[in-house]
């Protein structure tokens, strides 16, 4: 057994392996980037724990909305089909957005995927542990509940960190399920029964990793289907614009048309024999701009160069819903779903967000109080005593006004839970 754990550890990328050892060396979970290893005492205790969901920021709330509202199964029989009761009605969720370190999608362009990988395993450790920081105060607290499952709601984090997290969990020998948004998205493509070509819209980092074309090809291939042309377009602007970030002054529609055009051109360059039909919304934020993106493709069809290249009716794949279904199936398989008469160990869901920890010596901030951009993208892995960000409870007041409006209007179940 020990040998198996060592082999698993070797399979984890070097920086994640250091973090695995660090957490192992601090089993009481009091140190930064460690967790209380005794939290999963028996099946009964594990089943009553909440489910963790993380993203690079608040975009993953789109995935949480899908988790809170999914009704695709009969809760008693586990058979497919709606029964009028949300599938996770008894479960509770702990959401974490690593806002201080985002955008994750831009680390690859800065050649810092090593640091990104470490950040992603740290996110998982945060969800596994009890340690968090109060919004004000000088020391961490230890009352956050551990989790029985981790949902990686971020496409970029899934692309770079899913395997590291799975192998770390195996090396720690804890019974925690790990679900990532990309595999679910690929299954969403399969279920869309597309006959045309496939386009992936995602961050620059997700596209650079090639994870979507790889997983879609595998998923369609395993199902015995031929794989059509898959083109992708990585955007460095659309997620920020959707959040209403002032660094992106044009409208979401204006950025959407640029990205749609770039994707259509990439698709054309792949010499397809059929029109582009299925668009994968491969970034947490994009489902919120689905209408603008579809309008962009519709307007491109008015240009003779694109008319026959883009299908008249597009199919949009939102990996969030597919992720929720995947989590349901995995929890049921592992017998970790709460039974109808059982309640989670916490009454309400909880939300956390990372912010710069300004008291940490050596940290560099921009004028608006966020981490300085050059500083952010020049950090190296391996400093587990150094906490330049801290994870604090997220309240609606901490969400920038534009994003808060978006959540309030478009993610009502999340907003209700957040404003409790
Ligand atoms: N959450 C990220 C994703 O889904 C988008 C934002 C970011 O780059 O951090 O890829």
CATH class of the largest domain: Alpha Beta
Radius of gyration: 21 Å
The beta-strand count equals 10
Number of domains: 2
User: Describe the biggest sheet?
Assistant: 6 strands, mixed
Rough outline: globular
**What is the count of helical runs?**
17
Q: Segments where pLDDT lies below 50 for 5+ residues?
A: none
Portion in strands: 5-15%
Secondary-structure element order, as H and E?
HHHEHEHEHEHEHHEHHEHHEHEHEHH
In whole angstroms, the N-to-C terminal distance is 45 Å
CATH architectural category of the largest domain: 3-Layer(aba) Sandwich
- Mean pLDDT figure: 94
Bound molecules: D-glutamic acid
**Structural class determined from secondary elements:** alpha/beta
CATH topology-level fold name of the largest domain = Rossmann fold
For the largest sheet, list the strands in their spatial order: 4-3-1-2-9-10
């Amino acid at each position: 057994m020990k040998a198996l754990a060592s082999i698993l550890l070797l399979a984890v990328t070097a920086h994640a392996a250091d973090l695995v050892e660090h957490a192992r060396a601090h089993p009481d979970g009091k140190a930064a980037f460690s967790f209380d290893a005794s939290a999963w005492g028996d099946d009964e205790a594990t089943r009553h724990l909440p489910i963790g969901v993380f993203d690079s920021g608040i975009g993953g709330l789109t995935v949480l909305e899908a988790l809170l509202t999914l009704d695709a199964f009969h809760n008693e029989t586990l058979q497919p089909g709606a029964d009028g009761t949300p599938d996770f009605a008894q479960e509770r969720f702990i959401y974490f957005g690593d806002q201080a370190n985002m955008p994750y999608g831009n680390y690859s362009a800065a050649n810092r995927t090593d640091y990104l990988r470490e950040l992603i395993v740290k996110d998982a450790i945060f969800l596994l542990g009890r340690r968090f920081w109060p919004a004000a105060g000088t020391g961490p607290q230890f009352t956050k509940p551990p989790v029985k499952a981790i949902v990686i709601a971020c496409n970029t984090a899934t692309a770079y960190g899913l395997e590291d997290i799975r192998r770390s969990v195996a090396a720690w020998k804890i019974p925690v399920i790990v679900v990532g948004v990309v595999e679910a998205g690929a299954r969403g493509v399969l279920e869309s029964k597309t006959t045309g070509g496939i386009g992936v819209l995602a961050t620059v980092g997700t596209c650079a990793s090639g994870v979507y074309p790889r997983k879609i090809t595998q998923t369609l291939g395993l199902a015995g289907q031929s794989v059509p042309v898959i083109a992708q377009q990585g955007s460095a602007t659309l997620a920020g614009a959707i959040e209403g970030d002032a660094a992106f002054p044009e409208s979401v529609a204006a950025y959407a048309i640029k990205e749609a055009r770039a994707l259509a051109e990439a698709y054309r360059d792949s010499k397809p024999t059929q029109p582009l039909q299925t668009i994968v919304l491969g970034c947490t934020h994009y489902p919120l701009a689905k209408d603008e993106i579809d309008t962009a493709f519709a307007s491109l069809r008015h240009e003779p160069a694109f008319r026959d290249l883009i299908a008249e009716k597009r199919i949009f794949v939102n990996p969030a819903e597919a992720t929720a279904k995947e989590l349901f199936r995995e929890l049921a398989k592992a017998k970790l779903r709460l039974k109808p008469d059982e309640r989670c160990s916490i009454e309400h869901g909880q939300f956390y967000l990372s912010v710069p920890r300004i008291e940490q010596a050596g940290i560099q901030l921009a004028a608006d109080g966020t981490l300085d951009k050059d500083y952010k993208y020049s950090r190296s892995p391996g400093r587990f005593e150094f906490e330049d960000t801290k994870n604090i409870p997220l309240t609606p007041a901490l969400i920038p006004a534009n994003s808060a409006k978006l959540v309030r209007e478009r993610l009502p179940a999340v907003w209700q839970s957040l404003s409790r």
